[in-house]
Amino acid sequence: MSKKKLAWVSASLFTLVSTSAFAQDAAEAASRGSNAFDAQAMAALAAGIAIGLGALGGALGQGRAAAAALEGISRNPGAAARIQTPMILGLALIESLVLFAFIIAFFLQGKVPG
């Protein structure tokens, strides 16, 4: 199996697993006959997708940034100090976006009464 195909399968699996975990309370509310099920189900689905896509995008971005920096350092070892600092800053900004998606997922999960 190619790396690209494996990455898509992994991302889909993690997204679906987290979505089903968030959606269990919404399914329980639907079985009780709640009229607000649609909004609750959509909030649960959005929370699962937010954290799944946030983690996937962050991992891909960090991988590409690290690979490009290491390639640049291997081509010109003298520029390692000039490459390393912006790379670490970029990785920190990418990680902050992942944490932002994580916080949004928790806010959306709070919209689903349990």
Overview of this structure, please?
There is one protein chain. This protein has 114 residues and is mainly α. The chain has a domain at 37-108: F1FO ATP Synthase. It has helices at 3-31, 37-75, 80-110. It is elongated.
Quick description:
By secondary structure, the chain is mostly helical. The chain has helices at 3-31, 37-75, 80-110. It has a domain at 37-108: Up-down Bundle (F1FO ATP Synthase), CATH 1.20.20.
Topology (SSEs and partners):
Blueprint: H1 3-31, H2 37-75, H3 80-110
| Helix percentage | over 70%
> How many β-strand runs?
0
How much beta, percentage-wise? under 5%
- Tell me the radius of gyration: 19 Å
The CATH superfamily label of the domain at 37-108 reads F1F0 ATP synthase subunit C
In CATH, the architecture of the domain at 37-108 is Up-down Bundle
Shape: elongated
By helix and strand content, what is the structural category?
A: mainly alpha
Notable features of this structure?
F1FO ATP Synthase, 114 residues, 87% helix, mainly alpha
